[in-house]
Amino acid sequence: NAGVTQTPKFQVLKTGQSMTLQCAQDMNHNSMYWYRQDPGMGLRLIYYSASEGTTDKGEVPNGYNVSRLNKREFSLRLESAAPSQTSVYFCASRRQTGLAGDEQFFGPGTRLTVL
Amino acid sequence: AQTVTQSQPEMSVQEAETVTLSCTYDTSESDYYLFWYKQPPSRQMILVIRQEAYKQQNATENRFSVNFQKAAKSFSLKISDSQLGDAAMYFCAYRANSGGSNYKLTFGKGTLLTVNP
Fold first, then answer.
1. How close, in Å, is residue A94 to chain B by CA atoms?
2. I need a labelling partner for B95 at 20 to 30 A (CA). Which of A50, A57, A109, B46 fits?
3. How far apart are CA B98 and CA A32, in angstroms?
4. Which residue of A has its CA nearest to B94?
């Protein structure tokens, strides 16, 4: 199992450019999440998908869109990148066992710089 | 809204010694989980330990243990016999245990732990 994979690992954009961050998981998890990590801020939830076909806003959704393409894939799109979106982006998926302490598994992150 | 506070931006410990990282949280829920995640320089988020709010017994995973004080809304992480590989950013996280919350994690800002040889 590869777990949660993210592409690309690094990206530099110019202000106003668009791009899509890809995330895939091979653990048959229903729920998937996108977080951003900024220095001194911890991780903040951007969007999440509780199950295939559903998406909802998190704490900081402005400037982003998401697509839950199928059960495996959950993409994050920046339509018009801004310097404030310079961050490290993490995708995660959640195991649902019905038992105690369902865990979120994280991808390796994408470091995005917007100039 | 739930909040998680880590009041120590940085901590250091000597190899083989013990260190405690602090975390407090605010919630009106009674059923929830608390987590400690480790993020080494590789950026990978690794689950260290988890605690169920309705369990009074503190969780333990090898050298890692927690001191969970539900009334005080405190959840500290103790690392015993610290090793160089423990050097990382540590995040405390909260998650309500209800479907309506969609199991979203709320993170603290992190504590950077340095281990000195």
1. 9
2. A109
3. 16
4. A101
Mean pLDDT, chain A, integer: 92
Quote the tokens at residue B61.
Answer: 């995973």
Residue whose token pair is 């989980």: B33
Which A residues 12-51 touch B at CB under 8 Å?
31, 33, 40-45, 48, 50
Q: How far is CA A45 from CA A25, A40, A59, A90, B14, in A?
A: 18, 15, 5, 9, 34
Unique residue bearing structure tokens 């590869």: A2
pLDDT of residue A98: 61
Residue of B nearest to A100 (CA): B52
The CB-side HSE value for A60 (13 A sphere, CA atoms) comes to 16
Span A78-93, pLDDT tens digits:
999 999 999 999 999 9
In the block, residue with structure tokens 């993490």: A90
Indicate if the pLDDT at residue A99 is higher than 70: no
